[in-house]
Amino acid sequence: MENFVIDPAAGRLIQTAFITKDIHASMREMARTLGVGPWFLRERGVFPRQVYRGQPATTALAIAMGYAGDMQFEIIQQLDDSPSVYREVAERNGYGLHHFGVAAEDYEASVAHYARAGFTLVYEAEVVHGARVGYFDTHGALPAMIEAIEFRPATRAMFDGFRDAARGWDGRDPVRIRAPI
Predict the structure, then answer these.
(1) Residue 4 has pLDDT above 60, yes or no
(2) For domain 8-168, is the CATH number 3.30.160.20?
(3) Which is an annotated Pfam family here (predicted)?
């Protein structure tokens, strides 16, 4: 590790994400045991553009995001049986840790950085506000994938709003429904 240098193109770590069979049970348990909340939940949606391992995809998801301090937690439940990066990990490792999310100020530079590191881009999608995300298989170098999140102003504002809601959260109104994807 003596030659280790942090490359700003990689992005800043902002999220730990999990896949689950039951998003509501996972939100309750993470709020109870870790103090994560409130949760902002999109109960069902299909991102407008998805590519999984080079093929168009139409995976339907429920997604919840919440904070504990400055750390964002994301929970994802796949709602269909389509081939996906989520099913792939669940079938290989079971439910649990799925990826680490990094805020990519320059999405293209972040994608190039992880490709140069030897990681494989296995999923890319256009998400809320038109931002792109790319998931990289780390081939066992890390215990989870890496997600490069295009950090647009609208993305930053959304995440800041979630974090602000968590500051001083008293446990009331633990799940806040968001508009569908």
Answers:
(1) no
(2) no
(3) Glyoxalase_4
